[in-house]
Amino acid sequence: MADIRPFKALRYNTATENMSAVICPPYDVISPQQEAALLANDPHNFIRIEYAKTIPGDDETCNRYTRALSHLQKWLRDEVLKQDDKPAYYLHEHTYTFGGEKVIRRGLFARVRLEEWDKMIVRPHERTMAGPKKDRIKLIGTLEADTSPVFGLYQDDGRFIGSVLDQVTAWPEAIEFAGEPGESHRLWVITDVEAVSAIQRAFTEKPIYIADGHHRYESSLAYRNERNNLDPKIPPDAAVNFVMMSLTDMADPGLLILPTHRVIKGLSKNLLYILPERLREHFNVETLKASNGGWENLKTLMAEDSSRFFIFGLSGDDILSLTVKNQPKVEGFMPSGHTATYRGMDVSVVDHVVLEDILGMNAMDEERVAYDHDMDSTISRVKSGEFQFAFILKPVKPETIQAISDAKDRMPRKSTYFYPKLPSGIVVYRLRD
Fold first, then answer.
1. Known PANTHER family for this protein (predicted)?
2. What pLDDT, on a 0 to 100 scale, did the predictor assign at position 188?
3. Which residue range(s) make up the domain with 99?
């Protein structure tokens, strides 16, 4: 199935550069505060390429994309960045702390042949929006490079790939560096002929599931199509026909998917008053008393496999736990054409039944709906009065992502949050042969 290949990555010259100071978060999670700190942190921080600043007066010849290209070209001339001599896979261990425990997630940087969705070789699970893709296509086209990887998942039931990677981790690591607070990284460069061949063979029978980076993948696909339309003689194995990915086993113990809670504001007092009654028309509503172990009960219930969801902010400090009364009736409020897996997800129930039908809102109304993957932050934003109440959702499991993808369905937007985000700047894939 998937065509996975090694590549000659552009990487920071570790003889002169401190990797801890030059990597940055992916473009879509960089806050203004982070942007300022990263720009001040190091003159070679990768944010100057990944997310160059927009300046008043920018035009077609001078803009954030041309500035990113200027940095890339200068850093290559100055050997801040250097291209590897041999094609390689790059094994990345991302160590982080969650819930007070140290966790390690393993990913393999590779270039993956771009495929149209209908071939079912690379499989998406979420819907995308046009705006972010325009930005990425422009950056890819200007730089002729993939600056940040698409995060992909694969199944390794026989651990054929895992056994090879286990051997690689016994090698002396090529590089070790710190990341965000509480995070660290190790990177191995895999050029061994037997290891490269074994990895490539193992993937020929596997599809790839997009975990994070749908916009990046679709941007690369659009850019490839654009280039091939302009020049139909581009060879099939040309660099532009591939995209850089970081690939992780679905069974990796470090794979963490956080829920994306919804926090709501801007509703009228009358609507808030009648909301509990309207909810009871469709849901069994149980109150988890905060004074009687309600938050501990919440943690237990969040681990169960059901379309149960929770609301905080409508009943003081207590939590409302909701389950569907009549599944066929509730499914009638959902868009047609979706699978039973989609219709059974708590995020689908909240978006389509509660937000759209009961509250008459657009689930993507960014004026009144915000998203937060951290429960403590979610609760705090309601208690502070910033938001009126919150929908607390359960995390999506990897097998749900697989089921949705295999059925050619798509989850609602903002259904998953893979934690932690992959940094940008560890490796770069050039689209030049």
1. DUF1015 DOMAIN-CONTAINING PROTEIN, LMO2823 PROTEIN
2. 97
3. 4-256+419-430
